[in-house]
Automatic annotation (TrEMBL):
This is Jacalin-type lectin domain-containing protein. Residues 297-443 form the Jacalin-type lectin domain. It holds the Pfam family MACPF_1. It comes from Rhizoctonia solani. Residues 188-209 are annotated as: Disordered. Gene3D superfamilies: Jacalin-like lectin domain.
Length: 612
């Protein structure tokens, strides 16, 4: 008999008895998961949201992928049909799958009620608001994004608004070479008579009690007519009513358990849902949306010729880099390609497509590793060299220019993610090679033990390239403890830096090779355990460093190089964006008989301060 809404049956109670006010989390592998707690409350007392249906329907669906099939068997729209969420950028949808596999889902639904709620009828639970606000108070964008994702996992990502409630049998799996499921066996006349409210052509096949299968899967297949349809079964399920009754007593008894027990009804079809942010206040929703739109993808300044970009490092959405392939010569970077987890590849763009014999190398990241920084050497119209820094201690080779060759280039540029991981590379190219590069960073990754950096550079264009970062076993804990050099007539020579850091639980001490000639008197500057370089003073002549002295938090040390020079330079340690003090972390640059150029890399104080 039809279910009646009488004066004793409150709409609010019916709505609360379903899970429509609970958020739904979408697992990347298994699909929709209804959370265990309500995320929303009804904020109005309007009626008419609940309507009786009292009919049944059988639907056949042919999803395009296994994930679509998992959504279909639960009565959800396919992921591509759902409204976009602000955080979808963190999990880009794969390209349309090749139809190598065909999936099918047949669902028989006993529909009892429809519930239709407007988003204006809903307000968020106070605990949800508190959790979101706590997430937004995290110190960095990456930590805020991580905390929000945990909130969405707990409270759900979407709220259903328009649903069908009742009971359902469903069977889903991979089918063999057909784009339709085989038809169910037509029901007998007696079956249709037993269920006057269910159209005869929609009642699943009845079984003789003596022939009843022993497993629930067999029973569902028999009733749906899907026996033998699937080469691989995803799932057979029963929602609503009593599965035990179906197993032990058959379809009639199960249907009676559905009709007689409204408390057993479940949401069996979702016709419309919205992101959970839609039920929030405008202010809170805007803060969350702004975080994902402005903080997830970050871009460094571009390096090289000021041309319009030919390729965009964010074109494939938020993905994890597995490897980067570089095509190069001894004087320039020819081409580049980035391979992401899942097989997506960006590039090559020009040279790497036409010259298959050109020199190339692939820099591979281990699972969980990210690129945190890039060094780029360039001239006015082309990129000369590039070096990648990993989140676990380690660097790539310097691609392009060779450290054993004296080169002429503009000062090296350090493109730092400052705690973010590399997403991709934007840039421009010509037939000969790359002319411009820009690092694109993903703000959803919080890389631990990263010191934010800034740089200062002085000197001339020529020399042999060096980078002290390769000598630091653990950059997070590294500090300068000693510098030796010559007080020569012409300039700063024989410069050698000693670093210490913690690695493997032990203090590691490393010395760089001496850079420059033996001209002049040897000077050694040794720092106390709590002493850090906070400034550099000196002179240069546009070709090399003539004089250089270091200022620490304790004193000004004697100068290296000549007694005087032509052009003065003066660098003080900068501060981080949130006001924290920086110290000299390490140096890079060029040298020949003297120090031609120096890139001073400043960073926050070491995470641990080792003894000297």
């Amino acid at each position: 008999m039809p279910f009646m809404l009488d004066s004793n049956q409150k709409e609010l109670q019916i709505i609360k008895n379903t899970s429509i006010l609970n958020g739904v989390f979408f697992d990347a592998a298994t699909g929709p998961i209804t959370t265990s707690r309500p995320a929303a409350i009804l904020s109005t007392s309007d009626t008419g949201r609940v309507q009786t249906i009292d009919d049944s329907v059988t639907e056949d669906l042919i999803p395009e992928s296994e994930l679509d099939a998992r959504y279909a068997q639960l009565g959800w729209l396919y992921p591509s049909k759902l409204p976009a969420k602000p955080w979808d950028i963190l999990a880009p949808r794969n390209q349309r799958p090749t139809k190598l596999e065909i999936w099918g889902s047949r669902r028989f639904m006993v529909q009892r009620l429809s519930i239709n709620i407007s988003v204006q009828d809903l307000s968020p639970e106070d605990a949800l608001v508190e959790a979101l606000e706590a997430a937004l108070r995290q110190r960095t964008s990456a930590l805020r994004i991580r905390a929000l994702r945990e909130v969405f996992t707990t409270w759900g990502e979407m709220i259903p608004l328009n649903v069908v409630v009742g009971a359902c049998m469903a069977s889903t799996g991979k089918i063999n070479g057909e784009t339709i499921l085989l038809d169910a066996t037509a029901p007998s006349d007696d079956t249709a008579t037993d269920h006057p409210n269910i159209p005869a052509n929609e009642v699943p096949n009845q079984l003789n009690t003596h022939d009843r299968p022993k497993s629930l899967v067999d029973i569902v297949d028999q009733h749906l007519g899907t026996t033998g349809n699937f080469t691989r079964r995803l799932e057979s399920r029963v929602q609503g009513g009593s599965s035990e009754t179906l197993l032990k007593e058959g379809y009639d008894a199960w249907l009676k358990s559905v009709i007689d027990n409204p408390a057993s009804w479940r949401i069996i079809k979702i016709l419309h849902a919205v992101p959970i942010t839609e039920i929030l206040s405008d202010q809170l929703r805007d803060r969350i949306e702004l975080l994902f739109t402005s903080s997830v993808i970050l871009r460094s300044p571009s390096v090289g010729a000021p041309h319009a970009f030919n390729f965009d490092g964010a074109a494939n959405g938020i993905r994890t880099i597995e490897s980067i392939t570089i095509w190069f010569s001894t004087s320039r970077i020819r081409d580049i390609s980035v391979t992401y987890a899942g097989g997506t590849v960006a590039g090559p763009y020009s040279y790497g497509l036409s010259d298959l014999e050109s020199q190339s190398d692939t820099f591979v990241l281990a699972p969980g590793e990210y690129i945190t920084d890039l060094f780029v050497w360039h001239e006015s119209e082309w990129i000369m060299g590039i070096q990648f820094v990993k989140s676990s201690p380690g660097l790539s080779p310097i691609y392009g220019i060779r450290t054993k060759d004296s080169i002429s280039s503009r000062p090296p540029v350090l493109l730092s993610g400052n705690g973010n991981g590399l997403l991709g590379l934007s840039g421009a190219y010509t037939a000969d090679g790359l002319s411009q590069l820009q690092a694109v960073w993903r703000g959803d990754v919080a890389i631990r033990r990263q010191r934010h950096t800034q740089t200062s550079c002085v000197g001339g264009p020529r020399g042999f390239v060096f980078n002290d970062l390769q000598h630091l076993a653990d950059p997070a804990t590294a500090r300068i403890v000693q510098i030796t050099g010559r007080a020569g007539v012409n300039g700063v020579a024989k410069l050698q830096t000693t670093y210490t850091c913690m690695s493997g639980g032990a203090l590691v001490r490393s010395e760089t090779p001496p850079r420059g000639s033996d001209d002049g008197r040897l000077i050694t500057m040794t720092l106390d355990e709590d002493e850090y370089i906070i400034g550099v003073r000196g002179h240069h002549n546009n070709h090399g460093i003539q004089r250089m002295l270091f200022v620490t938090n304790k004193k000004t040390h004697p100068a290296f190089g000549a007694d005087k020079g032509d052009i003065e330079f003066n660098f003080d340690a900068p501060k981080t964006s949130d006001g924290r003090e920086m110290v000299l972390h390490y140096i890079a640059g060029k040298s020949r008989g003297w120090m031609d150029a120096v890139l001073f890399v400043w960073a926050e104080r070491p995470l641990k301060t080792p003894g000297v």
